[in-house]
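Job type: complex structure
Entries:
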Amino acid sequence: MRVSIQSRLHYHFAQPADVLLAVEALDLAEQVIVQDALTMRPDVERRDVIGGGGDQRAKWIHAEGDLEIDYTATVDVTRIVRDLGDLPATPRHELSADVVRYLFPSRYCEADQLVGFAMNTFGDLSGGAQATAMADWVFDHLDYVPGSSTGVTSAADTFMSRQGVCRDYAHLFISFARAMGLPARMVSVYAPGIEPPDFHAIADVWLDGAWQLIDPSRMSDIGNVVRIASGRDATDISFMTIFGTAELKEQSVHVTLE
Amino acid sequence: MRVSIQSRLHYHFAQPADVLLAVEALDLAEQVIVQDALTMRPDVERRDVIGGGGDQRAKWIHAEGDLEIDYTATVDVTRIVRDLGDLPATPRHELSADVVRYLFPSRYCEADQLVGFAMNTFGDLSGGAQATAMADWVFDHLDYVPGSSTGVTSAADTFMSRQGVCRDYAHLFISFARAMGLPARMVSVYAPGIEPPDFHAIADVWLDGAWQLIDPSRMSDIGNVVRIASGRDATDISFMTIFGTAELKEQSVHVTLE
Amino acid sequence: MRVSIQSRLHYHFAQPADVLLAVEALDLAEQVIVQDALTMRPDVERRDVIGGGGDQRAKWIHAEGDLEIDYTATVDVTRIVRDLGDLPATPRHELSADVVRYLFPSRYCEADQLVGFAMNTFGDLSGGAQATAMADWVFDHLDYVPGSSTGVTSAADTFMSRQGVCRDYAHLFISFARAMGLPARMVSVYAPGIEPPDFHAIADVWLDGAWQLIDPSRMSDIGNVVRIASGRDATDISFMTIFGTAELKEQSVHVTLE
Amino acid sequence: MRVSIQSRLHYHFAQPADVLLAVEALDLAEQVIVQDALTMRPDVERRDVIGGGGDQRAKWIHAEGDLEIDYTATVDVTRIVRDLGDLPATPRHELSADVVRYLFPSRYCEADQLVGFAMNTFGDLSGGAQATAMADWVFDHLDYVPGSSTGVTSAADTFMSRQGVCRDYAHLFISFARAMGLPARMVSVYAPGIEPPDFHAIADVWLDGAWQLIDPSRMSDIGNVVRIASGRDATDISFMTIFGTAELKEQSVHVTLE
């Protein structure tokens, strides 16, 4: 299916600042970019971030004063959605280095602290059935409350407060998965139909030898989301990492199915 | 019923240190001291801690070198054990200052962080039924694992790890209670029949205008425990607070029903 | 000197809620109340919180809908300000139970975690010289940044972020003091000349057998502040503890020297 | 110079467990492996972890019962040690994806919480002078105390406790560097002359377009250390990550200069 994306970021930088921008859709077999364009006013110099193994198309820019960033894209998504419940866990000794790193706790995913709970709750399951039970648990036990979390809220906090937004749902799911030895990572996406429209955060879990998307918040249909970036947790996939300070003037995201 | 207590602490203090000692049974209507004796070798100077509203009979001692402390007591316990499930919560505006202070979070009881979970889980109940459900939850969801926690383990840690010892069971119960607006405090007791024999930590919850004992670990029979001290959390009721360092040589507690 | 106080709280309670109100000045030898009045519109029932050892004149009220609370007072402050640097620490074995409790860590004052730093930094000093060095350190190393902390910011957070408001300055000072075995507590006050005018939080440290006021933020002159409440940390001395939710409509504090 | 390595790990696995083993020296221009051998008794199946960009030569093994692992190596180290103080920071927009990831906080390096302190303390410096000042600060302000930290001690904990071991020195240095926008990562090494002999943890900081080794503990001479693995923090570079439980029987490390 064809997905149409329009995102706009308008910030004011009182002081010059380096900015890492990650708003562009990835061009993958499962999501082919028909056309896309990143426009900036003023047209500041941009530099592709080299490497990264295809995890994101981040760019470095140097911002000062007013900066308007527009990204438009048309993407054909042909992702085949598999029933995770049937997928086996990949034997650990087959995991490559690029996957192994997603077994470990990270800044906002304290998997090590949640091993006790995860063992008690999900210890009788394995593979895709276990991952599905984790995502169901997160959906069933959290309340979606805009404004209930901040940029430093971690999975441990969310496990106690029992509320959050998509970022928090993903962090908690990822923490459960890693606590049980399933590689999991965070994924930023454009998702049609999210209310209110915004960048969306979901998760990848490694099953049957591949990354499988899963949305513990159930806000999106993973058959039609468009991947932007992936990483250990929110810290790696921010659409805009500002090394300095900036004032938000306007931010909008429109994602529609054609 | 008559409870017989023998506790012994043997420590070595390489450097002189102030020590706050709280090992003596309280003399209360519900537990009458028939006889008791606190003996120290050498017989260091001891000073009663003045005040405290009957919460404990703490003493200051100044320790240096080897110190052996023996406490023996015979106590008649006539506590009437009420069925908490029937007791109403006390209206908040009737709570006195000495009880109000146990509504708030403390060092090891982060009640504020657990409000979300407590509301979702215990929000439909009130009073004694709510307190009982909390204690049942703690018993059902934690594993008693000696050595699984340390002196700085807090209720939030235990909520995630799902294991601990009596101290951790009490901290988590107290945190739930305070999260829902029920005053709760920690109580150190001598308890017959604990295996292995040791000082024991349980909780008081304020219901129907009085403190009601409750043991979330179900290790003791609250009809025959002997109160030593009470406070906000483990930090207030330690049987021995050492301002300095000491080496443990021997520690034993024997509590029997006559 | 004569201090004139006018404070006003206007809140809207969409749901009925119990509220613990602590806005009234204490009547003490060092601060004699000439006249004061607490007025509420509507005139909801109020109940004095019984007990508390003179630490505060808190009241329970039951609020619903719009509630305007006005407190006016005229207080003669005759506090003698002593030079803390000359005061000895009180020997520990002379501390009473009401002071001993302020030796321990609390929810927002993780004194136990800061022992290492405090020993290295203040270990060569004692008594009032030590307390003064701690307050100086806090003033010298923190930046006063309104909005940089929240209701759950603790002393450990502030020690790292190096910024905060009066509440955070007090929490960090109190944590240092307790880490070194000096009893310390938090005190809410009315303080003339604070900019912007607001409730103010400072600290008491126990030296030479009495509580001595100290303001690590240096915003107030402790010779003319008016004590409202004291407790282990911010959780105990809030001017308004709401058991439920409320919307702030207006809040103002005016404190002037006549 | 030629470095001779002998490390031995002897563990007992009561239950079968997957183990990620990272004890082998990297073969790099700066450290050429003359010969090395990894021997296991019994000779369990081993699988190279594929990929990882040369960060480590980790292997997956499946352990059960007694397992003795011996690693011996002879390595010619020709690393040129540069004076970091003269090296410029690399402009951010030249950082590649493999370096960008080391700008962010991780599980044990809460760089985000230490920005305030780092700005105040190191804000006037840049590049290698800044990195050197950070390493000096860590050395000057921490006490090396074996046993003072555990596997879950983080940089924030160490910043408060002011003590730790090589792991903690590295975590705190890395957190300061990231807080100021310098990429930094953790490195496990074999280091001649460490007392007691053990695996050692130091740091890499990205300056002048390359990773530069730095040892905030000053225990090793970075001119002769042998790199094993690098990663975001201790979680990534453990010499042995056990997915299950094991009992340590013997562990020894001998590293000598020939």
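Summary: Residues 2-78+240-257 of chain D form a domain with the Immunoglobulin-like fold (CATH 2.60.40.2250). The longest helix of chain D spans residues 127-141.
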